[in-house]
Design goal:
Layout lengths: L8 H11 L2 H48 L4 H6 L1 H13 L3 H14 L4 H16 L11 H10 L9 H21 L1 H19 L2
Helix pairs in contact: 2-9, 4-5, 5-6, 5-8
Protein name: Regulator of G-protein signaling 16
GO molecular function, one term: GTPase activator activity
Subcellular location: Membrane
Length: 203
């Protein structure tokens, strides 16, 4: 739109824009671009947020079932990362988490392939959990302790098998039943059961 007549509004506007510094015009363009990006991000964030909520609901359903499976057997509990975490938290209240830590250290030890690392790891585990007056000594009998000590001379992935089995049995027969009766686990099962009932009522 152009106009040559004096006092024309369009002519005044064009002159006004021409007189503006270039930096102002550039800033206006930049602002427009940024607004466009922000609007795009807002729409994208809404889509991602909706997807995230769906995934969270799915995880909650899975975890609810998982919590109820822990009471089926001690093996089911140990197979679950969340189960191990919950059990470890419970053992801390009884000041006996070293039993589970030793069991987990043995599981990790069995995965070691390097003979050099195997020997150094074996000594470290023995000193921390097995030897007399170890900082985190586990409750095993003298005979098992001595067998484990002898196994260190030719460390293999099986050198802690007997001590690990004894510790596992102790946890299964002693700590595990108490964990199932604990207030924390009872609360978890109530929540899991209520989620299951809620899910069935919506289907």
């Amino acid at each position: 739109m152009s106009c040559w007549m004096p006092g024309c509004p369009a002519l005044s506007m064009c002159r006004g824009l021409a007189m503006l510094p270039i930096t102002c015009l550039e800033r206006a363009k930049d602002l427009k671009t940024r607004l466009g990006i922000l609007l795009h991000k807002s729409e994208l964030g809404h889509r991602i947020g909706t997807s995230g909520k769906l995934q969270l609901c799915s995880r909650r359903r899975d975890s609810s079932q998982e919590v109820l499976e822990w009471r089926e057997s001690f093996d089911q509990l140990l197979k679950s990362k969340n189960g191990v975490t919950a059990f470890h938290t419970f053992l801390k209240t009884e000041f006996s988490e070293e039993n589970l830590d030793f069991w987990l250290a043995c599981e990790d030890f069995k995965k070691t392939r390097s003979k050099t690392k195997l020997a150094s790891k074996a000594n470290r585990i023995f000193e921390e959990f097995v030897q007399n007056e170890a900082p985190r000594e586990v409750n095993i009998d003298h005979e098992t302790r001595e067998i484990t000590r002898k196994n260190l001379s030719g460390a293999t992935s099986a050198c802690f098998n007997e001590a690990q089995a004894k510790t596992r049995t102790l946890m299964e027969k002693d700590s595990y039943p108490r964990f199932l009766k604990s207030a924390s686990y009872q609360d978890m099962t109530k929540q899991a059961t209520s989620r299951g009932i809620s899910k069935r009522s919506h289907t």
